[in-house]
From TrEMBL:
<dbReference type="InterPro" id="IPR019430">
    <property type="entry name" value="7TM_GPCR_serpentine_rcpt_Srx"/>
</dbReference>
<keyword id="KW-1133">Transmembrane helix</keyword>
<feature type="transmembrane region" description="Helical">
    <location>
        <begin position="16"/>
        <end position="34"/>
    </location>
</feature>
<keyword id="KW-0472">Membrane</keyword>
<feature type="transmembrane region" description="Helical">
    <location>
        <begin position="200"/>
        <end position="218"/>
    </location>
</feature>
<dbReference type="InterPro" id="IPR017452">
    <property type="entry name" value="GPCR_Rhodpsn_7TM"/>
</dbReference>
<protein>
    <recommendedName>
        <fullName>G-protein coupled receptors family 1 profile domain-containing protein</fullName>
    </recommendedName>
</protein>
<feature type="transmembrane region" description="Helical">
    <location>
        <begin position="120"/>
        <end position="139"/>
    </location>
</feature>
<dbReference type="GO" id="GO:0016020">
    <property type="term" value="C:membrane"/>
</dbReference>
<feature type="domain" description="G-protein coupled receptors family 1 profile">
    <location>
        <begin position="37"/>
        <end position="172"/>
    </location>
</feature>
<keyword id="KW-0812">Transmembrane</keyword>
<feature type="transmembrane region" description="Helical">
    <location>
        <begin position="159"/>
        <end position="180"/>
    </location>
</feature>
<dbReference type="Pfam" id="PF10328">
    <property type="entry name" value="7TM_GPCR_Srx"/>
</dbReference>
<feature type="transmembrane region" description="Helical">
    <location>
        <begin position="69"/>
        <end position="87"/>
    </location>
</feature>
Length: 257
């Protein structure tokens, strides 16, 4: 009797967060908001790189701790603006089905706008801007290095390569979720194909986005654990010297020159 009651209570607790409940629908909307925070974070990182390359010395003031906090706040604000429509839980929602393991937007006009217009449109627009900024950043790196007449230090391109990899992962996600999955129309016959090109690739993108940080920053982590203050001092000195060299090159060649 106790086992039966315990099981019934467990099922009740699980049902509170099922795809048909208000809580389940709001959790889906919250997940989309967090996704958008991640998307806007990559845009801010791209702008950050562009500022450092075009304004090496001024970037220390432009990217101060106060301004960085403001940018982070803006990113979270924009992300959670996407959450507002999901409070209209009966027409505007995205839910995860435990039966077929798929995410799906509401089969309504609002659901279509949330999925195909707001979510997809935001992703394409933001990543288009990132691509534009990064192409210009590459152009600036090549031009400034020719003027400075020196080889670029590996640490100076570490963050750039990191963001390019992360950007590529997100592009693959958008391509799979909105294009490749469209080739599989029969949810019964193509169930696993749809799952791997939608739900799986969505979650896998978030995992890889975080794992990419490890190879790029593992040595920094070890140095911090060992209290390698000398290494930090040398790195800081090299960064300052690089800023000075890039600043001289920037002064002699305008950003659009």
């Amino acid at each position: 009797m106790l086992r039966i009651n315990f099981r019934n209570e467990s099922l009740k607790r699980q049902s509170l967060f099922s795809s048909s409940t208000i809580a389940g629908k709001l959790i889906g909307g919250f997940m989309v908001a967090i996704w958008d925070v991640s998307v806007y974070s990559h845009l801010i990182s791209s702008i950050n790189r562009l500022i450092v390359l075009c304004f090496p010395i001024a970037s220390r003031n432009l990217l101060s701790q106060r301004n960085t906090i403001i940018m982070i706040a803006i990113v979270w604000f924009l992300g959670f603006l996407h959450f507002i429509p999901y409070f209209k839980v009966h027409d505007c929602y995205i839910v995860f089905s435990s039966y077929n393991y798929l995410w799906s937007f509401a089969p309504t006009t609002c659901g279509f706008l949330l999925g195909k217009v707001l979510d997809f449109g935001t992703g394409v627009t933001v990543f288009g801007l990132i691509l534009l900024f990064d192409i210009f950043t590459i152009y600036r790196i090549r031009k400034l290095l020719k003027v400075a007449k020196r080889k670029i230090h590996p640490s100076e391109v570490k963050f750039f390569l990191q963001s390019c990899l992360q950007f590529g992962v997100f592009v693959v996600k958008l391509t799979c979720f909105y294009f490749i999955s469209g080739f599989f129309t029969d949810i019964r016959a193509d169930h696993w194909e749809i799952f791997f090109t939608t739900s799986f690739v969505w979650e896998f993108t978030h995992c890889i986005d975080g794992l990419i940080l490890i190879p790029f920053h593992y040595k920094d982590y070890l140095n911090a654990r060992r209290g390698n203050y000398m290494g930090k001092s040398i790195a800081s000195s090299m960064a300052q010297r690089s800023r000075m060299e890039l600043s001289k090159a920037t002064i002699s060649h305008s950003p659009i020159g």
